[in-house]
Design goal:
globular; 7-stranded mixed sheet
């Protein structure tokens, strides 16, 4: 029989994260530090707004771009936080999570063979989304000595005549790194010099600790060459509602909307109602409550790793720690598999996020404080045997 699967899909491996989740799901007493999902329930006023929307019978499609009310609120929200203005009419689109927003921009801007520079370790979907759109992902490394911030020199060295864009994800998944303003300015200067688009995934923008989040389009000269991706999943504990957004210059946004029209139609109506409430009904209060609790867990887990000899730089954003496992002599995959098998603690191998993640594991602290304490107790036993 004829082989029907496309070469680019067949050549793309499954997510390196899922294997460990699937195994952990079969284990009774496992403590998962693997999943990148808030353990909080969506705050009640946001939850209620979704319920009220359903009870009002709001079950039809919205505008392709999302409700006018939500796009207007997003415009005001971004301007309030970062002093950058987007027109709700033609520069903002509401998407099915940031994942769809990423798909839209790649499909809208890439021609076959166009290259996209991706600093790694990075979110597992970045490279495949470029590939699925016909582009070529060009991975560049980041290093713990730089606090996993990509440097302008590294990006400059990777630029070729085929380079079209730089895909940045800060605060970073999996490392928890945050780009300092001066470092980001040097990177954006390279983009401007070489006339490159920046695609900036800022889904964790509100989850930073003791440092300022740098919003790329708010930097000098960057608004017109940046596609800003954001959403409600992480900051507002709304992963299952599937509401993200993209902000971009009108010509790029129009191309993204065209792809969206033919593939999605519109983001979930109920989720949009809940997202509007998150922006207009004291949602910031709940974000700050969750951020403070994540910070408490962050200090616990990072101190715990360092005490056990798993050198861990200080993550300043998101809800991930990225400790070294060099002391064990194991590969990242072996470490994660043996830890799961022997102590029923799930982490993700660092090289699931790119080659420069080898020798590290990702641990999510989006789980209860007490569970993190127990996971560290189990890890101590494991390190006594293998460290």
């Amino acid at each position: 029989m004829r082989h029907f699967i496309s070469d680019r899909v067949a050549a793309t491996p499954p997510s390196g994260i899922r294997k460990f989740f699937d195994i952990a799901a079969t284990m009774k007493d496992v403590i998962s530090l693997g999943i990148g999902e808030p353990d909080f329930v969506t705050p009640k006023p946001i939850l209620q707004a979704g319920i009220d929307s359903l009870q009002r019978g709001e079950t039809a499609y919205t505008s392709n771009s999302g409700t006018v009310e939500l796009r207007t609120a997003l415009s005001q929200h971004i301007n309030k936080l970062y002093k950058v203005n987007y027109d709700p009419a033609d520069e903002i689109i509401v998407t099915v999570g940031v994942s769809e927003a990423l798909y839209l921009v790649m499909t809208a801007v890439l021609n076959p063979g166009d290259e996209v520079i991706i600093p790694e370790p990075s979110f597992v979907a970045y490279g495949p989304e470029v590939t699925f759109a016909g582009g070529v992902p060009v991975a560049v490394p980041t290093y713990v000595k730089d606090n996993f911030q990509v440097t302008a020199e590294t990006i400059e060295a990777a630029i070729t005549p085929k380079t079209k864009a730089i895909l940045l994800g800060y605060p970073n998944n999996p490392t928890g790194a945050v780009m300092e303003r001066e470092v980001m300015l040097s990177v954006t200067a390279v983009a401007e010099q070489h006339d490159l688009l920046i695609i900036s995934d800022e889904i964790y923008d509100r989850l930073v600790y003791g440092i300022e989040h740098v919003c790329v389009p708010a930097l000098p000269g960057m608004r017109e060459r940046t596609v800003l991706l954001g959403g409600f999943s992480k900051d507002y504990a709304m992963t299952g509602w599937r509401i993200g957004y993209a902000c971009a210059p009108a010509d790029i946004l129009a191309a993204m909307r065209k792809v969206h029209q033919y593939t999605i139609m519109s983001a979930p109506t109920t989720g949009q109602a809940a997202a509007l409430a998150a922006l207009t009904h004291e949602g910031d209060h709940y974000v700050e409550e969750m951020r403070l609790e994540y910070d408490r867990r962050r200090r616990l887990i990072v101190d715990g790793f360092n005490t056990l000899g798993m050198d861990c730089f200080e993550p300043r954003g998101a809800f991930y720690a990225f400790p070294s496992i060099a002391k064990t002599g194991m590969s990242s995959d072996d470490f994660a598999m043996r830890l799961l098998d022997e102590e029923e603690v799930a982490m993700v191998p660092g090289d699931a996020f790119g080659a420069s993640g080898a020798g590290f594991v990702r641990a999510s602290y989006a789980t209860a404080y007490e569970k993190i304490e127990e996971a560290l107790n189990r890890l101590e036993r494991f390190m006594r045997r293998h460290g």
